[in-house]
Amino acid sequence: MISSVMMTGARFPKSFAVVMTRSAWAQTLAMASRCLACKNKPCVRGCPVNIDIPAFVKLIAEKNYGAAAEEISRANALAAVCGRVCPQEEQCEKFCVMAKLGGPVAIGRLERFAADWAARNQTVTRRGRRPRRGAQKVAIIGSGPAGLTAAGDLAALGYRVTVLEALHELGGVLRYGIPEFRLPREILDREIAGIREMGVEFLTNAVVGRTLTIPQLLESGFDAVFIGSGAGYPTFLNIPGETLNGVYAANEFLTRVNLMKARQFPLEGTPIKKPHKVAVFGAGNTAMDSARTALRLGASEVRIVYRRSRAEMPARAEEIEHAGQEGVLFELLTNPVRFVGNENGWLVRAVCQRMELGEPDKSGRRRPVPVAGSEFELELDTAIIAVGQSPNPLIRSTTEGLAVEKWGGIITDEQTGATSIPGVYAGGDAVTGAATVITAMGAGRRASIAIDEYLKAKRSEKKKT
Predict the structure, then answer these.
(1) What average pLDDT does the segment 42-46 reach?
(2) Number of C-beta neighbours around residue 363 at 10 A
(3) Using one digit for the tens of pLDDT, what is the confidence trace for 309-328?
């Protein structure tokens, strides 16, 4: 079978609210008692921020929920976020011994439960202390997961931390890229408030590379800089018709809805065309978010169009399942050839081609090969391109001596995040390209440790002179 379309007896959601039933929570809590508390803690090896997972799961099993939240907060300043959006099945849960015995312990849901319980009951004590008087200063560029993690860790060590965010609201990709039905804004705001309480200063509308540059930051009194500016520069398909009205980059589409609140137009100032027949090209988490968002905007038909098969789809299994349950259709082994518009420049259809899988490519996945004579048309008024993002070129173009990859990622030491410029570190999507929230947080954690060592050395040298 060359292509497949998965359909369900689906519901078409209208609300951006998250639903979690009492029965679902009961099932989740029951999972805590399945943890074997392995001495070598294989699950921790899969966690980029090294949470002591057996310790907090054991506390939940004992119904000591506040202590469980405290344990998580030692390593993770964004626990409620991670519990909702991190791909645990490819990280901590992947290494759970119980995976071979009926399925892994539901680590992600347990983390989410503990964090939410602590917030409701106001039991978690914030890490660390407010900045020391006369402490060294660190500038953090970007308030996404890498920047927030580095900021929280460095503040906990007593440094004076300033986060510079280019947009008018904080959170980076957590706010503009992830829909509210996956990450409620009050959760994100609560986590950021906790970091602010540690003494971190936040500046919005601060476009580094335009408002000021990294050299200017270093010259103005900052002792170190961490670049966590993310990857918000869209990748396109480079096929005819991509400039038609109704064709969006996923980043633009989600930013309009999530950050600019276009779904509330005209109460909010940003409009968005109401979609009817939608195709999302790509099959990662961003594609699933875009498809599910389009349904909530009132689309009557939404398809994921992907050139490989279900087995190769990079999105989390949970996100794919949710999309199917909500009514998203899956047009697999299919690739767009061109977009076609009407006389007014609006998208009306896409010409696509069936594919079949050949030999594996460099990624290890089987390469999609076009099937001759298989072109067909999809009637559309909205196309969303979700095939990846890369770092914005603004910082690299205004920072002399900053080494970058050909595709735009900042070159760093893998262990420390150190760049080619002394005192300047980087991590997250600005280095790797679009990846996961927890991977970015891990990079922020490693960089904060290295920045602490760098600043200690600076203090030592200063004392000698």
Answers:
(1) 93
(2) 9
(3) 999 999 998 899 999 999 99
Task: Give yes or no for a contact between 349 and 340, defined as CB atoms under 8 angstroms apart.
Answer: yes
Nearest to 406 by CA among 417, 393, 394, 415: 393
Domains present along the chain, CATH in parentheses: 22-121 (1.10.1060.10), 137-231+391-464 (3.50.50.60), 236-387 (3.50.50.60)
In DSSP terms, which residues pair with 164 in a beta bridge? 141, 203
- Joined together, the tokens standing for residue 423 give 């005192």
Largest interatomic CA distance in the chain: 76
pTM of the model: 0.90
C-beta of residue 452 within 8 angstroms of C-beta of residue 436: no
pLDDT at 8: 44
Residue 18 has pLDDT above 80, yes or no: no
